[in-house]
Amino acid sequence: xxTKPSVNPTPSQIADLTMMTVKPRSLWVxxxxxxxxxxxxxxxxxxxxxxxxxxxxxxxxxxxxxxQTNAGKSFLPPAWMExxxxxxxxxxxxxxxxxxxxxxxxxxxxxxxxxxxxxGFLPTIVIVLVGSVVGLLxxxxxxxxxxxxxxxxxxxxxxxxxLFFIIxxxxxxxxxxxxxxxxxxxxxxxxxxxxxVGFARVVRGQVLSLKEKEFxxxxxxxxxxxxxxxxxxxxxxxxxxxxxxxxxxIPGMIITEAILGYLxxxxxxxxxxxxxxxxxxxxxxxxxxxxxxxxxxxxxxxAICVSLMVLAFTFLGDGLRDALxxxxxxxx
Length: 332
Hints:
Family: Belongs to the binding-protein-dependent transport system permease family. OppBC subfamily.
Order of helices and strands: HHHHHHHHHHHHHHH
CATH topology of the domain at 39-59 and 110-268 and 301-328: MetI-like fold
Strand content: under 5%
Distance between the termini: 52 Å
Subcellular location: Cell membrane
Largest sheet: none
CATH architecture of the domain at 39-59 and 110-268 and 301-328: Orthogonal Bundle
Number of strands: 0
Structural class: mainly alpha
Transmembrane segments: 40-58, 115-140, 152-172, 184-203, 238-263, 297-317
Shape: globular
GO cellular component, one term: plasma membrane
CATH class of the domain at 39-59 and 110-268 and 301-328: Mainly Alpha
Radius of gyration: 27 Å
Membrane topology: Multi-pass membrane protein
């Protein structure tokens, strides 16, 4: 009697069938899952979201008016100190103490988050747009056009960034441009002018490696225009490095604003309570620097906030780099 052939699949056949039936995840979905498994990146995102919340709802979160001076309340120590070095007792109503004019340090620190958030994001958006367009054009066109753009990029890259910021802020501070948004517009412009070159180089390198690929040749064969090839095929395939570099550029913007504010060249302190941008963390550190030995709490809150923001974006940038690196696909 003939035996019936076995129909039980082997383990390898089961694995192959499972892979065929499971819908594959896209690159971005897979990158997201890799990112949220990175504990440092998740911690960075939590800190960034917290400071975004503080900046948006500063009016509701600040316990006092950041411009209000309280007579007889100057240089109060923070709440965790019973008596300050000057012999004054702390007041629970002023958790971080007060400055030399009796203004609440906690409220001013909360309002300072707005400037750092805006300075971190808005110039970076301009930098990404300018650098991506220049890099796309240089890499796709090639030849003499590429050579001219890259030599211009080298000239901008060779100029010292901080020196340029100081020259621009000192020269134009008292002009109409320098007074827009209490000096923030001029700061945005100074930051954007010299920081796009890194994005241009990265995007150009990506375009040079992609423009001879088969899918680009196929797009040319079906009659796709140069603009469509650049913005519908080359740019989307270059988004990984752009996103990573953006996340690592934002902390640089925040540090630069803090440095300029500490030098007295950043945001012009506002005296109008209706202004959105009243002070910055850099300006607060400048205010506390003169009294750092007697009242160190004046400089500590803004300095800690700047450090947390920079670390958070650095952790997020590292996490994005690991999540979007194609060489790591399938290793985690």
